[in-house]
Every structure is written in structure tokens, then in C-alpha cells.
# Entry
Amino acid sequence: MNDVTKTYKILEIKQETPTIKTFTLDTALEGTPGQFVMVWVPGVDEIPISISNFDPLQITVKEVGEATKALHKKRIGDYIGIRGPYGNGFGLVGERVLVVGGGVGIAPLRTLMKNKNKQFTVVLGAQTKSEIFFEEDFKRNADVFVCTDDGSYGKKAFATQLAEELIQNNRYDMVVACGPEIMLKYLFGITEKHKINAQFSMERWMKCGVGLCGHCSLDPTGWRVCKEGPVFSSEQLRKVTEFFRYKRDQSGTEVEL
Amino acid sequence: MLSTSFAGIELENPTVLAAGILGTSAAILKRVADSGAGAVTIKSIGPKKREGHSNPTVLFFDSYLMNAVGLPTPGYRNMEREWEELKEINVPVIASIYASSIEEFVEVAQYVASRKPDAIELNISCPNTKAHGMLFGKDPSIAHDVVSQVKEVTNNIPIFAKLTPNTDRVIEVARACEEAGADAIVAFNTWGPGMYIDINTRRPVLHYRTGGVSGPAVKPLVVKGIYELYEHVSLPILGVGGITNGNDAIEMIMAGASAIGIGSAVYYRGIDVFKRICDEMQGWMLTHDYKSIKELVGVAHE
Ligand SMILES: Cc1cc2nc3c(=O)[nH]c(=O)nc-3n(C[C@H](O)[C@H](O)[C@H](O)COP(=O)(O)OP(=O)(O)OC[C@H]3O[C@@H](n4cnc5c(N)ncnc54)[C@H](O)[C@@H]3O)c2cc1C
Ligand SMILES: Cc1cc2nc3c(=O)[nH]c(=O)nc-3n(C[C@H](O)[C@H](O)[C@H](O)COP(=O)(O)O)c2cc1C
# Structure
């Protein structure tokens, strides 16, 4: 665990999709799949990003706003700051695991595939063909099903629909997922209906990343997404009434989802 | 053994969650209360919605933290859920407030008083924004006016003045607050500010560039500051800065604090630090045959 912000050289940059890049850094971390780091883009911002590989450290980032745009402009040899790893990560139970990734939410799930004692089925969902990434990496240790909103690749379906079909026709010990909250909302409806334990990686606005400032704490339990999360189990998801309904912005003001 | 009273408020133990740590929602404050804090402070509330500074806002080192969070707030009108749910917290709740003028302090304080917290803490000491905070706490006559005008609109709710250590007029400011009718002194907010530069990128790391210093490294400065305040003001003092264990807490009380604030130690020891510090204090008191925390206040002066 390293909490002092330190900067590391970018060794490699891979354009995964038109909007997503993977950065390989001149350092390695030890940790659990699902954990994240705080990434400092000098002079711009510091943002939470999941670990998409531990050794060497890789992060896989979608360009959505100021900080991620500035990160996408970085070149090999530039320095960015890293502290972490933070959060709890996934805790796999049972043998047969259904993994569901939507959009850039696919990124942290790849690290799960290092576990050779599980039987993984993976659903990768994106809007369109060019936004699917890591497919080959997953295929090395899982049965992979791809879907796109526009049907340009794999099945024309939402990841949630594909996941429900798989759940109806197979037995899984658990479902793990990362993706847009709206996807997780429907997926949680499905796992509850079929009584399967789930673990979802959730996002809230983070400042300190270590559980000190309280900004990412949840109603009504007071759990901090950066510390007790970002991965929450079905049992926990049932208790957090704000999930799928509202969140707090940078000022702490509640905003509807 | 640990129960005490502070500015007329009964506390089950003298540990108080410091402002700006974990205090962003009623839910997390409740969790802190359940983890053993004697009282909790709400993150400083301002007049209107404010995002605060961009990240990095807090930096972590072995013996100190540096922060420039920049007073994010939904604004006092935008916190209905929090105000309602704060009622469910079973320890005293202190509402920290800030503003950028005396008029605004009065406006915020008047509303906050209507939600009936157990005390209102005036943050006249934040080093991390230009228009707020430290400005008010460095000038005795301005500090006096903030306190006296807030007192007029807050219906006997105890008013705490939170001081900055970053002035050579600390004693004068504390006395001015006392004369203006403050019910307690909170000493201190963060120190400096300081700066951390990343040598690879040659840049200050905090987005605001500078940040207030807190945590174990400031403790000797705080102990000395409290020791001096105790000799010059008769108000109860909430000692804040660098307390991470029971011995630190006892030391601060011996210097003159009647209760102690805990902030950075949540990082160093976790959210249950309140209970752990209480257990450690109790252990020390048993060994040294003290029956009440009150017997220890200011004993270093005898
Ligand atoms: C635990 C966690 C893991 C994440 N992992 C990844 C990942 O692997 N890859 C990836 O591309 N994205 C990931 N994200 C999302 C990523 O943090 C945001 O996309 C990024 O912060 C956007 O910053 P921006 O300045 O580019 O955009 P902005 O325009 O500033 O923000 C766009 C949106 O991003 C979110 N955001 C911005 N700042 C923060 C912050 N400090 N904390 C939380 N959310 C913020 C908000 O929802 C905001 O509305 C993760 C988020 C969390 C909480
Ligand atoms: C991340 C952080 C945020 C803070 N925010 C506030 C705040 O909003 N209002 C305030 O009066 N003090 C704030 N402080 C100061 C603390 O309340 C406390 O006075 C200071 O940190 C010294 O105590 P400590 O060493 O136990 O942390 C903050 C401190 C930190 C570390």
C-alpha cells in the first residue's frame, strides 16, 4: 500500500477502442481484482481508476471529460501519479462465475481471469463493435459472449438480457459485474429474481480515496465506496437505498440518477 | 470515567469527530457516533453550493497530511435529508459553518440554529480558500464581530470559535471571541499551509498547490498552543491536532483541553479510532488512579 502520491513513467499506450486506452506504467502493484488506484494527471485532476493489470500496473481509461482527455493526450515517457491500491475488490465464492462487463466496466474484470480455479462465463457488452476490448484476454480462461446495442458484433442485445438468458439456462454460483449504474440496476433485478448472489463494482464521487473525507459515503449505511467498496454484495446492495436512485456530486449535493 | 461535559454539553467521552473528516452526510456521522465518538461535527456548511477544489485534495504522509479540500458544500438550504436524519444521531452534533462575510455568517448561523444542532462551530480558520476562513480568525476585532453577531441570532445554542494557529495573535483572537460571548474555543484548524512538489513532473501536487498540515507531526505545536490558551482564556478548549492515541489525548487534556478533536487519526487508525482512543485513555487512567477525565484538565500547569 502506497498512499504518498508518486509519479511513474508511462511505458506503453494501447488504443483499445476509439475512446479507450490502456496505459502501462513503470511499476507493479499487489492486490485483489476490483481494486482501484487514484491517478493524478499533473495540473488537471486526480481520479479513481480500476486496475486492469497488476504487474506491470495497467489502467484502462475511457475519455469522458477533462481529466480523462488530458490522460489520453499523454505520451510514452510522460509521468502520471499513482497511489493505492484502494478498496476491497471482488471475493469470488463457488466455482461457476458469471462475469458481466458493460463499456469501460470491462476493464477491472480482466484481472479476475488470473484465477485458474474457477469456471468463468463472461458477457461483454458495448454500444457497438469497435467499443469491445479485451475479448481475446478473456477467451484464454472463459466462455465469452459478446453483445452490442446496435448488433454490429455478437448478439444484438443489452448485456443484461444476455446475462438473464445465460442464468435461465445454466447454473452459476455467483454473478460479478462492473458497468454503468443503469446496467447494474437491471442486472440486480435479475440476480434477485433468480436468487443468485451478486457482487457489483459501484462508483461514487471520490476525493481522498482512503476513507477520510467521507465524500463517497452511502445512505443509509455510511459505507464508504472507496473503503468498504467499491465492490458490494447482494446483501449490501439491498441495504444501500441510494444505489440506482441518486448520488452526490462534487459539492455533496444529491443528484438523481 | 470518560464522561464529561463541554460548554454545557454532556459527553459520554471526550472524543469529538473534527470538522471536515467523514462528516459529509448524516449517514456517515451516525456511523462515526456508533463507532464510539463522544460527539460529531458536520463538515463545514456554507452559504451556497460550492464544489471545492479539484483533486488532489488530500495528500498522505507517514506523520502528517496536507489538505486543500476547499470547503465543498451543498449549501445550507440544500441539505434537507441530512437535517432530518441528523435527529437520529444519539450523540451531540456540532454544526461547523463558514462564510465569506459577517452578514453571511449571520445568515447561515440563523438557519442552522433553526435545525437545532447541539452547538455551532464557526470556521474562522480555514487556510484553503481566499475569501473564506482564516481572514476572520487572524484579526481579533473581526473575530469578535463574527461571534457577537452570530450569538444574537442563535438562541442560546453554544457557539464554538475554531481558531487558526497561523497568526501570532492567537491569544488576542481567543480573548476577543471570549468577550464576544463564545461558549468554547476549538484549537486548532490546520497549520501552514504547506506544499508538496513532485520532482519528476516538477509540480505542486495539490491542485490548490498549498494545503493545511495536520496529523501527528503538528501535535507538539498544538500542545503548546493549548497550554498557552489555557493560561489566557477561561473558556473550555476543544484540543484538535495530531491526536492519534490515548496518550496524545491525555497529554492534550493535561495541557488544558476539556475535550479533544480527532481528524487525521481516522486515516492512521481507521474509523473505530474513537473507541480505541477511549480504551487507551481509560487504561492509562486506571493505571494512574484517576476516576474522572475532569481531574486531568490543565494539570500540566500545576
Ligand atoms: C472505483 C472507480 C473505478 C473506476 N474505474 C475506471 C476505469 O477503470 N476506467 C475508466 O475509464 N473510468 C473509471 N472510473 C470512472 C472515472 O473515475 C471517471 O470517468 C473520471 O473520473 C472522469 O473524469 P473526467 O475529468 O474525465 O470527467 P468529468 O467530466 O470531470 O466527469 C465525468 C463523470 O465522471 C465521474 N467523476 C469525475 N470525477 C470523479 C471522481 N473524483 N470520483 C468519482 N467519479 C468521478 C462523475 O460521474 C462525473 O460526472 C472509475 C470510477 C470509480 C469510482
Ligand atoms: C481532509 C481534511 C478536511 C478538513 N476540513 C475541515 C473543514 O471543513 N472545516 C474545519 O473547520 N476544519 C477542517 N479540517 C481541519 C480539522 O478539523 C482539524 O482541525 C485538523 O485536521 C487538525 O486535527 P487532526 O490533526 O486530528 O487532523 C480538515 C482537515 C482535513 C485533514
